[in-house]
Amino acid sequence: QVQLVESGGELGQAGGSLRLSCAASGRTASIYAMGWFRQAPGKEREFVAAIDRSFGNTYYADSVKGRFTISRDNAKNTLYLRMGSLKPEDTAVYYCAAGTSYYSGSFSREVEYDYWGQGTQVTVSS
Q: Looking at 1-126, which runs of residues are DSSP E strands?
């Protein structure tokens, strides 16, 4: 089992920046890739960004490309999401996820993840 705990969600301003963290514990050696998803009110959960644990390859949704940066510190078993140039439409609950299997592609599908955090709220004011 892997446990994931997100932190860093808060109220931000349009044009500003925030950093989310996700601390992983348990069988972290089994993790192949980690990602961030988000769910805005009244909308389905959507992919934001992902990173594979071994090579550090990163993948982004078009809506955040160039504004958000995903990174990981394997020694600390922590995943990060640096969010810049914030927009009100970035308001959502952000979820951290971990997958233990290899998939070809960009790790953008929920089915590619086995473990999920509880989420952290990000609100961006205009």
A: 2-7, 11-13, 18-26, 33-39, 46-52, 58-60, 68-73, 78-83, 92-99, 115-116, 120-125
Are 39 and 46 a contacting pair, CB within 8 Å? Answer: yes
**82: helix, coil or strand?**
strand
Phi, psi of 57 (to 5 degrees): -65, 135
User: For the chain, how many residues are written?
Assistant: 126
Q: Report the C-alpha gap between 95 and 78 in whole angstroms.
A: 14
Confidence grade of residue 103 (pLDDT, cut at 50, 70, 90): confident
Assigned token pair, 99: 């997958």
Task: Give the pLDDT of residue 55.
Answer: 83
List pLDDT tens digits, range 28-80. Answer: 999 999 999 999 999 999 999 999 978 889 999 999 999 999 999 989 999 99
Q: Are residues 101 and 112 in contact, defined by beta-carbon separation less than 8 angstroms? A: yes
**Interval 15-37 mean pLDDT:** 96
DSSP structure class, residue 52 = E
Going by the DSSP 8-state scheme, the letter that residue 119 receives in this structure is -
Q: What is the dihedral of CA 113, 23, 33, 19, to 10 degrees?
A: 100
